[in-house]
């Protein structure tokens, strides 16, 4: 448990991100956390570079109801201070918190308050003296060192992350680790770069592990607004079938066969349906090749041909739709679907 | 061989995309192909919905020097016409070209001219009478049916694609197929939707297969400008270490520790270095936690701390850089690196 959120086992894969504000600027930090919550973040991490930041946690927690994780580097006293301030979890970095006595002291403080610790190994901050290069084995070995330290204190409320900016190394490290250990894994490709590249690296790395059933909580790392990290993470979980929430749009690339402006409809649809929570597939298909097939497999689908568009609902052809009305009809049908109660009584 | 491009075996993973113009509009089609070539496309597919489009291939080939694939659905005579017009390869769809005699005739025409055929199976256009739902096994089975048809004609110049708009189905289908067959695989998550979702679905699906050594040529499907498909595909290959070309930027997400505007520098850098071909890693790191480590593992790296920035080259600390000059210094160093001849004599 990280605060109220369960991580590991059969609990849903949770989404994490990190604030960009100075943590001791409580007002700005609370505002950013609220934005992350609105976007669907489950757990928020805060950088704790100094005492003022560690002390600010107490104040921040008055205004937001989401588990907070303190990101600790170099100085174990900041970890102790964060624990005092009511933090829900710690992230410590074996690469820069190497003093055995200090790590033990942190473990004892956490055990007293049921605060879990993430051992957050990162290729860029491995102990260079022990590991000249950040290989997959080096990442695993570094994590195991700290796991042993904590286990020797009887502390087992542990989560592990093995991050690298190299997708292959990150995937390999997590595969190796998960074969040898049962601790929950926090997945991320770190320092993944600007928006597009980061989406690609994160999806390939995190996605391929999730497809193999590895990973319990995820963070996209993007050099940009962290709200984008949350949206990307939720989209990945949705398209992998791991969080049945929100709208997945099935739409064709544009080709010589397209019969209307698919891109415009998809863009508008994406923008106007962000608020919907119930999972559904919506197909917007521009031609007769895959159109009817995809539309039939979706909850709501439009397939367009030379003679006009047809609307499908849950596998059945409903009626013709004029091309000008496609967006309007789709929005109305999505709204209807979202307001329908399903048999489980959920909305 | 698809024209001059080798697909399969140990040849580099090639990048494909598809034109969005009417194929019989030769001027517009040639213009778009040239844009795709500039973006790094290796193979271009053209929709051939009618006779005029099939005939236009001859004219288009006069203006562009890239292998062209004709996308054929429903009507085998368009395949024969495309072969006559000098197409480099065909894509046929077992879901809508089911007449055995017709498929045989296409195979004979292709064999005479050494034209390979892609059997392009797609969840949305499976034969509904045989396969009520587009499962991974259904995709494989549909491909095997057409492989057998072609093999019975002595035709083995075959490539296969098993596409689904469901990432899990697509990954599973390709895994199953690659265990049973040696034919080269063209990978893609189809109808992947608008830009962001398509990047995420494509990277997760294509990426996880490539990480396991499955796949020979790839296409991102994006409901947008196909140039974006090419850029995404090349970025994925680059970050997976499969095409050592272009610049990979390692940059941290923004957090409470950041000491300068990483996002702005990364955006500018991405924009201004698109033209460079030689592979390199450039680290732009905003703090001291992972900064020096990542900078040291990169060809060029900047790590910023409270006391200013430092420049690293190939693992060595070179000198201090003032924060205002970070972008300028990086651009100059990248340019120098790009103009350096490496030991292989390549530039």
Describe this protein's structure.
The structure is a homodimer. Chain A is an alpha/beta fold. In chain A, helix 2 packs parallel to helix 3 (about 75-85), helix 6 (about 165-180) runs parallel beside helix 7 (about 195-210) and helix 7 (about 195-210) packs parallel to helix 8 (about 225-240). Chain A has eleven helices and 13 strands. In chain A, about 40% of the residues lie in helices and about 20% in strands. Chain A is elongated, with a radius of gyration of 23 Å. Chain A has an eight-stranded parallel β-barrel with strand order 1-2-3-4-5-6-7-8, surrounded by six helices. In chain A, strands 9-10-11-12-13 form a five-stranded mixed β-sheet. The longest helix of chain A is centred in the middle third of the chain and has 17 residues, at about 135-150. In chain A, a hairpin with a 2-residue loop joins strand 11 and strand 12 (about 310-315).
């Amino acid at each position: 448990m990280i605060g109220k959120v369960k991580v590991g086992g059969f609990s849903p894969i949770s989404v994490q991100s990190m604030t960009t504000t100075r943590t001791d600027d409580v007002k700005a930090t609370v505002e950013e956390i609220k934005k992350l919550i609105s976007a669907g973040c489950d757990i928020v991490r805060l950088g704790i570079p100094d005492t003022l930041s560690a002390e600010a946690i107490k104040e921040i927690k008055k205004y937001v109801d989401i588990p907070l994780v303190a990101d600790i580097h170099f100085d174990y006293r900041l970890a102790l201070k964060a624990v005092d301030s009511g933090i829900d979890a710690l992230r410590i970095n074996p690469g820069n918190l190497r003093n055995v006595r200090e790590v033990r002291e942190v473990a004892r403080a956490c055990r007293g308050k049921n605060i879990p610790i993430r051992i957050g190994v990162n290729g860029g901050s491995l102990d260079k003296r022990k590991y000249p290069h950040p290989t997959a084995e080096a990442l695993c070995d570094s994590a195991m060192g700290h796991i042993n330290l904590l286990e020797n204190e009887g502390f087992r409320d542990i989560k592990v992350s093995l991050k690298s900016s190299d997708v292959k190394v990150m995937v390999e490290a997590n595969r190796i680790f998960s074969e040898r250990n049962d601790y929950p894994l926090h997945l991320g490709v770190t320092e993944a770069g600007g928006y597009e590249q980061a989406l690609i690296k994160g999806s390939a790395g995190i996605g391929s592990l999730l497809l193999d059933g590895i990973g319990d909580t995820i963070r996209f790392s993007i050099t940009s607004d962290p709200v984008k990290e949350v949206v990307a993470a939720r989209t990945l979980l949705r398209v992998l079938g791991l969080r049945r929430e929100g709208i997945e749009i099935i739409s064709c690339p544009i080709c010589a066969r397209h019969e209307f402006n698919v891109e415009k409809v998809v863009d508008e649809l994406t923008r106007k349906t962000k608020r919907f929570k119930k999972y559904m597939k919506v197909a917007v298909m521009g031609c007769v090749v895959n159109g009817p097939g995809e539309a039939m497999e979706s909850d709501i689908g439009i397939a367009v041909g030379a003679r006009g568009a047809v609307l499908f609902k849950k596998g059945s052809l409903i009626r013709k739709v004029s091309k000008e009305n496609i967006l309007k009809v789709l929005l109305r049908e999505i709204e209807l679907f979202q307001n329908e109660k399903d048999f489980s009584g959920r909305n």
